[in-house]
Amino acid sequence: MVMMKESCINMYNIFDITFREMNVNQLAVWFFIYSFFGWAMECIVIRKQLGYWENRGFAKLPFCVIYGFGVFIAFHIFAPIEGDYPALYIAGAICATIFEYMTARLMQKLFGEVWWNYDHLRFNYKGIICLQSTLGWGVLAVLIFSVFNKMVERVVFSMDMRVTTVLSIVLVISYVVDFSYHFTKRIANKKMESVVAQVSSAGSLQRFFHR
Description:
Blueprint: H1 2-12, H2 24-50, H3 65-77, H4 85-111, E1 124-125, E2 129-130, H5 131-158, H6 161-209
Antiparallel strand pairs: 1-2
């Protein structure tokens, strides 16, 4: 019976330690913690700017995975300067702004829109990046490396491995299903809008030539 339990646990941990002494299941939980806090931060910022609450996630679940990916990438890139906070601030501000810009361009290509707008702020570029957010990214980078990640890792490592395994599977499957559904729906809506626009344009041309 004991051997069977160990086999089950090992089956879920087929990958060895992959990142900051976390196995793949712990890494998934770590990733979604950052994705959740990124979502919460954006919702609070938008609430302050617009005066009402707005779901800032791509889908229905309360996650902005761009933050999970962003922090994951940052811990790889900034490893050599992890304890040098001035350098970390500058690197975080620059790299996060580049990441934000690239994400915006990708969203424009896929969906024809970007889900944030800095036009109301000074020193912005096409509404997708701005000086204020760049300075904020630097502060956030320092806070994550100096304080926040220690707390996140403490939570992840304190969890029972079986709980972590089940939670990671539930989170990944739930988000993939949620994301896939809404991604497909947005692409379908975009195609439909394009068809409607073409039909409307053709109708306008017909009315013009039949005058």
